[in-house]
């Protein structure tokens, strides 16, 4: 039976996954949520028509969003996750015994509940006792919060719909204020390849560079995202992800990872020339 | 007008590019060749239904297939290119003044002529006077040749159809024999992500490892190839691409490149854990 | 969200319906069954990857499979339906007060139950007290049965999978034997347009012509079936659907129909020349 | 090689034909014109992204647009064809020895020239000496012309782009005025099935009914048009296509046709109930 999910990655590029079965379809107050099963990618989550994660390649995204900052500063104790309703980021964070508290702010309860039911491997650690779920707008949470965090991870959708506020100057400023003196901000930062993604990436980079003394971009290969070449932003008040990187310390934790390793850590900051130029002159 | 070229990247994944116009369609004795124009990717070349290159991302492939070995040993003088009928590999090679001779062995004259006509930016340097074109089977050429080369680049299609012989043990042995004492072999080495590609990758890696004292794999992000995560093999009798890498020497050449740089060189060998495991235990 | 059901109507033709939601997916011992919801066609039923019915155009199929024979002989009292698990044929039959008994033989209980749940408008009359459901192989039922029927309707899938037996000579012979002296056989008879369908149509027509004194083919326009030009076979021991047609008698019943009317009845037997030739010389 | 032409028949329905080769692509001042070759449909003509004709089913369209009016009045001598740049309508008209003059008014010379080159079987009779080609706007031609015609055939595209004027009240009025006392108007009249087509059909029918004493709609099955159920309008000052139909006279001409015959003529006016209602109450 030919049932295909198609993401128009641009107006002129389509990426399609053959679907075995639809497991969930729901319209929350914020977005359209679908979960499908497939032979090639296993189960996968679609929000507003866009691939959020597939069971086959989510390990790449979650390895890179968590282990790069954690290996830069393995002493992180308090973490704020904005977005990340699928639970994958939290799952990786909970592997660090040194982390004492994880606040996760996800606007859409339906995403969390659907992932807990249909993507248990990804969402499995949301009930870790260090995790506190806040079902509210990320922008409002950071505006209001008085906490201090060692690490803030912005695990957002693209800057359309509910994710839009998470790409604004005000949001980044609030994050800056919530970070401790040696705090790190990691944010989902789009892609350099297709024009629309690159434009959003440059805008985000420009804003963050204007706020943080240290601001970099690192890359990873994400097969189900447009072009497969995807980026995270790394910003910090104190730590440089390369100069301050102490691989032995992370190695000593003995975590097994399928994508991340301490070499990949370094290589991920070695950007192709055209990407480096975008990041250096984001306008 | 909706005209779409679709590559079934696996049985369950389709990648589609909206076509503006078909520029060329021909059936040679070896394969089906099509060249299309598109808004997103510019002109692109399809062989036996598979994307060979697009004008938008071919710079990545050709930067990485040429500049990694050339920066490892900038003294290369004689080069053999097997395949590469589109001319992109030769184009990058001709930028090195030190290269004295390039033998290019392409089985299919129709590919070369179509690319010269419709992809002139890629094929432009095939008439460089150091280049000699040999329209014959790559396997037979390496079996017969008595030359010695400093660099052999296997710029082949996937191991089906005319490209199949270029993935055999005999072929790699012949390449080994044709290489000078400090010779380097670079080969198109598929991808670790989708099972079919990964299987071919492992088979090629295993064969090359059994022959060469130094054998590595390096990665690049190729948006129009399946998964976007693609590999080249690097094998040598003498040079390690990292230990023997002297970035200053390459920098001194003053070549401008859009993807490759001396950081990318190093980062490209920093493989994700699951890829590293495949390469270390290719069976 | 782009989710598309696609039917490859031939190797070279694809027909796709945008899906809102999957309502049912099940694998019975006989076939793969899916029910989807869509904006354009409403809910629709797919069996083994092929469109069986859509809420938007099923009225055409069911009008034509039932009212043509019933208007030819409005005195029909006992009906046998082979297949027709969606219930649409039975729904139309139950509108005739004169019908006393309907035996429906459907091999696949899962089809019936899924349609009762998700396609209630089609399946609504399966619980009419004149209807008796037999969940068994149609071939075996007709082989064994000793009943006499005034009308047999073969409401089958294409002649692959469980529908295959319903296109054999033995099956038609058994139907002949089960029909009363003035009995009528109507059968789903594929399409004249695409080669594969036309071949099956000719084979079925040839077999039926060899058995029945009166054998015709009539057409209807079914938008979601390949080519939209679709046929039913009409065979009888006694009644000619045109010569014995008494439109007034049917009009007197006062049935409202959206596709069928007594003009359409006549027009449906007026076949295009190329179809007429196929039917006259089915080999 | 997977190259597919896709027509979005509605926002939610796609019809796709696998393409072997693109034969022609051109942008005239009026529209985008493409001609493809395919295994299933042979060569086919696309205008502004919409299927105009395929070699496999154009016989149906051209049989029905020409032979229905010509069999109603085989004494037609002067014919005006508006549109029809592919030449198929003229080809069928030239088979009538009694026709003395055919004026064909096609706005787009590029369509005619491309069809003459790549669709010679369809366009073959445009050089018949009774045919005069006028490359101009159909609306302006009928506004200006002082001729009298026995038959006007509006062989237009859908009412968007250059075809739009050919669906206006003013255009139909001018046609009325150009027709002789027993003149017949036949016009491409869209389809009853999908909402957008049905709306255009009703609007056209309503206008023509208000002008002509006799106005009907007849149907044919066109596999490559949306839904396959397609209509022509028949309007006349004198002749009813059924009451005045003398099949023997047309039969006597001895024309061989693959779709049309004198039964199909009659059956084509026997409309399904829902279509009949639309035509009777076009608003």
From TrEMBL, chains A, B, C, D:
Ranges where the PABS domain occurs: 2-237
Keyword terms, alphabetized: Polyamine biosynthesis, Spermidine biosynthesis, Transferase
Domain of life: Bacteria
Pathway the protein acts in: Amine and polyamine biosynthesis; spermidine biosynthesis; spermidine from putrescine: step 1/1
Entry's Gene Ontology BP terms: spermidine biosynthetic process
Pfam family, one: Spermine_synt_N
InterPro entries xrefs: PABS, PABS_CS, SAM-dependent_MTases_sf, Spermi_synthase, Spermidine_synt_N, Spermidine_synt_N_sf
PANTHER family the record matches: SPERMIDINE SYNTHASE, SPERMIDINE/SPERMINE SYNTHASE
Record-linked NCBIfam families: PRK00811.1, speE
Official protein name in the record: Polyamine aminopropyltransferase
Gene: speE
